[in-house]
Amino acid sequence: MALVGRIGRPHGLKGQVVVNPETDFVEERFAAGATVWTRSNGGQEQLTVASLRVQNGRPIVGFAGFGRIEHVERLAGLELRVPEDALQPLQPGTYYEHQLVGCAVETVSGVAIGEVAKVEGGAGASRVVINGPHGEILIPLAVDICVEIDVGNRKIRIDAPEGLLELNETKRSGQRAAGSGQKKR
Questions:
Q1: Are strands 146-150 and 43-55 parallel, antiparallel or unpaired?
Q2: CA torsion, ordered 151, 154, 159, 160, to nearest 10 deg
Q3: How far is CA 82 from the centre of its chain?
Q4: Using CA atoms, how far apart are residues 61 and 57, in angstroms rounded to an integer?
Q5: For 28-48, what is each residue's pLDDT tens digit?
Q6: Whether this model's pTM surpasses 0.90
């Protein structure tokens, strides 16, 4: 199941919620009639979208059968997911962030760096978190650094600027490295 959003909080009194989207396809993913799944201590639950409107850039979603604020309060904080086969096909050379997890990372000269554990950040400042032999390594997800991303073969080749990998060595020594403002791929 692929993450497409997180329920933020109830909105109004009629059972709608604010959704923090994790998709570039908000109107399609949360259109009336669309199905999403949540998982909580009560198990997995299928929800059908009854309504969508965007207010101040954020989706406000109503679910079928949830007509009052009391019905949706328990949903706050839950992730919204869909089966991977329900994701929209992407253009060649593009990928979903979850497809990067598990990819092997190496330099353009063939030196193994580690494996992608997760993708962090948002638009304009995403980075891959790599589990390396000496701990966590943070690499900006920028086209001039991540020069080849091949999700089919589960490999990412990087051309790290001088000092980037050493900066991560310093971070592992107990100092915190500053975040990156690189553009998202």
A1: unpaired
A2: 110
A3: 13
A4: 13
A5: 889 899 999 998 777 788 999
A6: no
